[in-house]
Amino acid sequence: MDFNEVNRRRRSIRAFSGRPVAPAALRRILAAALESPSWSNTQPYRVAVAEGEVLEQLRGELQKKFWHVNVLQRAPWWRRLYAWLFDGEMPDGDFRPLLKYPAELQRRRSQTGLGLYRALGIARSDYEARDRQMARNFCFFDAPLALFVFAHRGLGVYSALDAGIFLQTLMLAAADEGLGSCAQGALAMWRSPLEKHFTVPADYQLLCGLSLGYAAEQAVNQYRPQRCSVEEILLQPAAETPLQAADIS
Ligand SMILES: Cc1cc2nc3c(=O)[nH]c(=O)nc-3n(C[C@H](O)[C@H](O)[C@H](O)COP(=O)(O)O)c2cc1C
Questions:
Q1: In what order do the strands lie in the sheet with 204-213?
Q2: Is 49 helix (H, G, I), strand (E, B) or coil?
Q3: Which of 6, 44, 114, 212 is the S-S candidate for 159 at Cβ 3.0 to 4.6 Å?
Q4: Which atom of ligand 1 sits closest to the CA of residue 141?
Q5: Which residues of the chain have pLDDT under 70?
Q6: Among residues 134, 147, 145, which one has the least CA distance to residue 209?
Q7: Is the CB of 137 under 6 A from ligand 1?
Q8: How far is CA 233 from CA 1, 183, 228, 229, in A?
Q9: Distance of alpha carbon 235 from alpha carbon 27, whole angstroms
Q10: 210 in contact with ligand 1, CB cutoff 6 A
Q11: Three-class SS string for 62-91?
């Protein structure tokens, strides 16, 4: 496939068919992702691949945690405090979940969310259906594979940058194989369930999850959120000040 075709084909898939992914295809995708550039070629990432029984167990564990926290959001403060202290179900990811977005970014986030709900036939005011859709994150949208990307804490933001590049190469390689994927920050909310099933080095922080498999023929997979125009992301040249003009002459 030509690059632009692969790049366009890669879109977030939020409904997967039951078709399994051949181990050789998964290996090719991971090998392709390892061609990514990284800071001094440090390749500061690790990947956990969940499939079969481990995937089923994670589905159960993560959904249970999600619904527990979801119900707590409407509970009195003392119940929430008790939960933070004693329940053992509260988010224990390496990074705090984002609760508040800068206004400029929130606008795009809202537009994308609304478009997604429209594609799913969910009314804006139907909070129960919205919660159920959110919960679908934690069953990996029925994908046969879930990947979890960890980045080394030692490079700070640069490991996250490298892991992001790695993730994009991986998603493009998946698209080239005819597979669908969805990067999911939601899957980084809990670290403890992963530690139950994988040996995770202490220096590696859980950054993002990814559902992987063959796309199901469902309307949600046709949703194409709008992008900024090139002009919108280009910075304008600084206005020339009288001082600068004097400096030059
Ligand atoms: C780092 C990252 C985290 C994301 N987290 C989620 C998520 O938790 N759930 C979800 O449904 N989509 C998630 N997405 C998908 C974005 O919503 C999607 O990439 C964006 O709306 C653009 O749409 P497209 O991927 O179809 O081009 C995530 C994407 C990225 C890159």
A1: 45-50, 145-152, 204-213, 180-184
A2: strand
A3: 44
A4: 11
A5: 241-249
A6: 147
A7: yes
A8: 28, 23, 7, 7
A9: 40
A10: no
A11: HHHHHHHHHHHCCCCHHHHHHHHHHHCCCC
What does pTM read for this prediction? 0.93
Give the ligand 1 atom nearest the CA of 223: 26
Residue 58 contacts by C-beta under 8 Å, 6 or more apart in sequence? 50, 146, 193, 194, 197
pLDDT of residue 249: 55
Whether ligand 1 lies within 6 angstroms of the CB of 181 is answered as no
Which pLDDT score, from 0 to 100, does residue 242 have? 65
SS3 at position 167:
helix
For residue 80, what pLDDT is reported? 78
Domain 3-248 has CATH 3.40.109.10: yes
CA nearest neighbour of 222 among 88, 68, 70, 116: 116
Q: Is the CB of 167 under 6 A from ligand 1?
A: no
